[in-house]
């Protein structure tokens, strides 16, 4: 089923994470969400947990799950979604490679398709 | 939360934009360089997006090996290094704009049984892209 991805010592990726926040720009700042706040949040919730880690063993939120692109993106969504203070988390796009990515979106914004 | 998986493929093909519903001058005015009689080429990028539930046993929406094989058979084998106007039957009558190409490729892929086809997005160049998610 998993081919080369099943090699016993694992393998690495240079993941790229795109996080999209949707909402009305704040009347005073003109921003949907302060980018610095988002950057700090991503550093704390995602980078500190996952960067240069063996996802199978070192990320508690992935315990018991196969670390596919789909599952990792869902874990990132669940980590971020409750902590977005302004606007709403609209999409988490996780590239595992330039030719493969998973998207998580809010059901309410998915045009009723599933 | 909705989860989708997207795979990017590429093929190279040529086309000429010319509509039988217009005369030569009208075609030239509308399509410009894209109407040049001998066609021209693009390195197309096709993004295929699948939606569905993530299988708890595999962690996957669909097996990528199956998707790759299906896209190869249904799309790439026919389109890569071909002249779309002459070598793809659907475009004997349709103008091979990337809008129409999205619809044709979507229809060729919607029979994939591994997961639901959510969207086909095609980049004709790095500046132009088109998407089709099926009929309303």
Structure characterization notes:
The complex is a heterodimer of chains A (114) and B (136). With 114 residues, chain A is α+β, with helices and mostly antiparallel strands. Helices cover 28% and strands 20% of the residues of chain A. Chain A has helices spanning 35-50, 55-58, 69-80; strands at 16-22, 88-97, 100-105. Mean pLDDT of chain A is 92; it is low at 110-114. Chain B is α+β, with helices and mostly antiparallel strands. Chain B has one domain (4-132): Tetrahydropterin Synthase, Chain A (2-Layer Sandwich). In chain B, 29% of the residues lie in helices and 29% in strands. Chain B is built from four helices and five strands; from the N terminus they run βαβαβααββ. Chain B has a five-stranded mixed sheet with strand order 3-1-2-4-5. The radius of gyration of chain B is 17 Å and the shape is elongated. In chain B, 27% of the residues are buried. The mean pLDDT of chain B is 96. The chains are: A alpha+beta (114), B alpha+beta (136). The interface between A and B is medium-sized, with 25 and 21 residues.
Question: How is the topology of this model organized?
Answer:
The complex is a heterodimer of chains A (114) and B (136).
Chain A: E1 16-22, H1 35-50, H2 55-58, H3 69-80, E2 88-97, E3 100-105
Antiparallel strand pairs in A: 1-2, 2-3
Chain B: E1 2-15, H1 24-31, E2 40-51, H2 64-79, E3 82-83, H3 84-87, H4 98-109, E4 116-123, E5 129-132
Parallel strand pairs in B: 1-3
Antiparallel strand pairs in B: 1-2, 2-4, 4-5
């Amino acid at each position: 089923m998993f081919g080369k991805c099943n090699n016993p010592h694992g393998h690495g990726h240079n993941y790229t994470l795109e996080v999209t926040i949707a909402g009305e720009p704040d009347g005073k700042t003109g921003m949907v969400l302060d980018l610095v706040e988002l950057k700090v949040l991503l550093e704390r919730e995602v980078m500190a947990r996952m960067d240069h880690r063996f996802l199978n063993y070192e990320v508690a939120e992935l315990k018991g799950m196969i670390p596919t692109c789909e599952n990792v993106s869902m874990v990132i969504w669940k980590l971020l979604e409750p902590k977005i203070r302004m606007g709403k988390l609209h999409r988490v796009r996780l590239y595992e490679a330039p030719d493969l990515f998973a998207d998580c979106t809010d059901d309410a914004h998915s045009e009723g398709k599933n | 939360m909705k989860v989708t998986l997207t795979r990017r493929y590429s093929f190279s093909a040529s086309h000429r934009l010319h509509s039988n519903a217009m005369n030569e001058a009208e075609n030239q005015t509308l399509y410009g360089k894209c109407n040049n009689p001998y066609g021209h080429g693009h390195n197309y990028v096709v993004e295929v997006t699948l939606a569905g539930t993530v299988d708890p046993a595999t962690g996957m929406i669909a097996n990528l090996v199956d998707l790759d094989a299906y896209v190869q058979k249904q799309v790439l084998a026919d389109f890569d290094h071909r002249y779309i106007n002459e070598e793809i039957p659907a475009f004997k009558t349709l103008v091979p704009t990337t809008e129409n190409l999205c619809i044709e490729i979507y229809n060729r892929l919607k029979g994939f049984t591994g997961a639901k086809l959510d969207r086909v997005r095609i980049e004709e160049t790095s500046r132009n892209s088109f998407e089709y998610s099926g009929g309303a």
